[in-house]
Amino acid sequence: QVQLKESGPGLVQPSETLSLTCTVSGFSLTSYSVSWVRQPSGKGPEWMGRMWYDGDTAYNSALKSRLSISRDTSKNQVFLKMNSLQTDDTGTYYCTTGHYWGQGVMVTVSS
Amino acid sequence: DIQMTQSPSSLPASLGDRVTITCRASQDIGNYLRWFQQKPGKSPRLMIYGATNLAAGVPSRFSGSRSGSDYSLTINSLESEDMAIYYCLQHNEYRYTFGAGTKLELK
Question: What is the DSSP letter of B75?
Fold first, then answer.
């Protein structure tokens, strides 16, 4: 059974770095790619970036300068790090294979 | 980056209606188009993949089609559980993009 679960801090200070973890089960990260998608409250989703099954990465052009995605295949985890957070980075962050989605984690950027 | 223009943004409809939502791609994306349904407080749910393929567990009243650079999601005989926001997603290019969404609501 495929499952993805996001975890990380619910509150981040402005200008700080967001670190999120996506823990997957039911499939191998060396066989399937995982994307990060975020969604501000009341707005549409935004594709952030992707960890390909072969270890390559791709990023949204608008976020590329402050976003990094990595993985630990032995722990079945994909990581997101984004620096210089501002209030408009507030929203729900999801990891997804495209077909399967995590439940999302709410992140609030506030002092 | 490829832009996806989704219309309409809002779609009032009655139970039993047939409705169509469209996304237009700014560049060729082949059939690398997915449709998602999202209800309040929930994660998006995959409905259609490969532009025309029904995802597992999705009712057969949903269908996807393509005409050139226009991709459509059609729902036949609307049911109350279909009221939600629908998004398209292109995943042809190295970077993916969502449409802006269509809110399907009861008239």
Answer: E
> What are the chain A neighbours of B98 within 8 Å (beta carbons)?
44-47
pLDDT in tens, A61-94: 999 999 999 999 999 999 999 999 999 999 999 9
pLDDT band at B95 (very low <50, low <70, confident <90, very high): confident
Q: Report the C-alpha gap between A107 and B11 in whole angstroms.
A: 30
User: Which pLDDT belongs to residue B1?
Assistant: 83
Q: Point out the residue among A44, A94, A98 whose CB comes nearest to the CB of B34.
A: A98
The pLDDT of residue B93 is 75
For residue B91, the chain A residues in CB contact (below 8 A) are 98
B23 touches B98 (CB < 8 A) = no
Question: Which residues of chain A neighbour B96 with C-beta distances below 8 Å?
Answer: 35, 47, 50
- Asked if the Cβ–Cβ distance from B98 to A59 is below 8 Å, we say no
On whether the CB atoms of residues B9 and B19 are closer than 8 A, the answer is no
pLDDT beyond 90 at B94: no
Calpha distance B72→A63 (Å, rounded): 29
Nearest CA in chain A to B1: A61
**Helix, strand or coil, per DSSP, at residue B80:** helix
The CA distance from A54 to B99, in Å, is 28
